[in-house]
């Protein structure tokens, strides 16, 4: 059965980087919404991924892999009506410390990956309608210390989000979510690099008016809403989910 394009629920959805963390929570939420879900990562299919989720081993920094991901989703479930660009990596370095390998890794996953999947899906969405949700970051708007390439890569994601909304509406809606601290492997790794990880965690928490860090499910709920018809007048926008961190800065 070919998927319906702009349905509030039941999307044919591709979520990049669904092996763990935020991406996995998005996969679970879209399934609960009644969607047919395809996800990917660079490694093998995770053992705990539900059987009805199609896994495609793909590195989105590679254009051919990204095109194959979208093609396999279409073959399995029909026209992709929702793309969630979640795959991302973080390198904690200043510009002066960053190597060519760091540049390749961060720009590869965060920028090239987002571009590749959007380019692959836009002809389909232009014909059938669709929604793109890019996972940006508050780091795309503020200079998180020692995160130079990451900060710049997320600013790229935000810029691409606006351009897609402008160039491909009304068939396609495109928005970005800007998470703050969401407790995943990526966030834990960042704390682990601090001179005093426990003090860093305490200090960061104290700057959150919400009184807690975010959970992957907080982001997944927002993706679900942006993907739904409830958000049909929302495009080219940025939804900040950071527990008030940037409001308090
Ligand atoms: P994790 O490191 O926990 O998960 C990242 C996911 O992306 C994994 O499934 C990983 O799988 C996949 N991935 C990474 N590179 C590639 C690639 N080149 N091709 C395909 N898959 C890839 O990160 P989070 O869940 O924390 O982060 C998810 C997104 O949210 C990222 O874009 C991140 O920048 C953003 N974000 C996270 C915040 C946080 O506090 N956690 C804050 C703000 C934004 P594998 O390694 O197997 O390829």
TrEMBL record:
It comes from Streptomyces nanshensis. GO terms for molecular function: oxidoreductase activity. The keyword ATP-binding does not apply. InterPro entries: KR_dom, NAD(P)-bd_dom_sf, Sc_DH/Rdtase_CS, SDR_fam. Belongs to the short-chain dehydrogenases/reductases (SDR) family. This is Short-chain dehydrogenase. Keywords: Oxidoreductase. Residues 11-183 form the Ketoreductase domain.
């Amino acid at each position: 059965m070919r998927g319906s394009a702009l349905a509030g629920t039941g999307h044919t959805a591709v979520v990049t980087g669904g092996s763990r963390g935020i991406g996995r929570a998005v996969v679970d939420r879209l399934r609960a919404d009644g969607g047919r879900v395809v996800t990917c990562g660079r490694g093998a299919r995770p053992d705990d991924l539900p059987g009805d989720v199609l896994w495609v081993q793909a590195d989105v920094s590679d254009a051919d892999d990204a095109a194959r991901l979208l093609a396999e989703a279409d073959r399995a479930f029909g026209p992709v009506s929702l793309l969630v660009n979640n795959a991302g990596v973080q390198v904690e370095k200043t510009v002066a410390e960053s190597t060519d390998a760091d540049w390749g890794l961060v720009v590869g996953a965060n920028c090239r990956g987002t571009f590749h999947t959007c380019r692959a899906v836009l002809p389909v969405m232009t014909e059938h309608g669709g929604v793109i949700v890019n996972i940006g970051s508050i780091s795309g708007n503020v200079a998180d210390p020692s995160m130079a390439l990451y900060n710049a890569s997320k600013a790229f994601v935000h810029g691409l989000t606006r351009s897609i909304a402008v160039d491909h509406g009304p068939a396609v809606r495109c928005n970005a979510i800007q998470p703050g601290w969401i407790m995943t492997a990526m966030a834990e790794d960042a704390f682990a690099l601090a001179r005093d990880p426990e003090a860093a965690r305490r200090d960061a928490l104290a700057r959150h008016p919400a009184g807690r860090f975010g959970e992957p499910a907080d982001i997944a709920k927002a993706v679900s809403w942006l993907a739904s018809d409830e958000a049909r007048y929302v495009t080219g926008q940025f939804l900040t989910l950071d527990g008030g961190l940037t409001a308090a800065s």
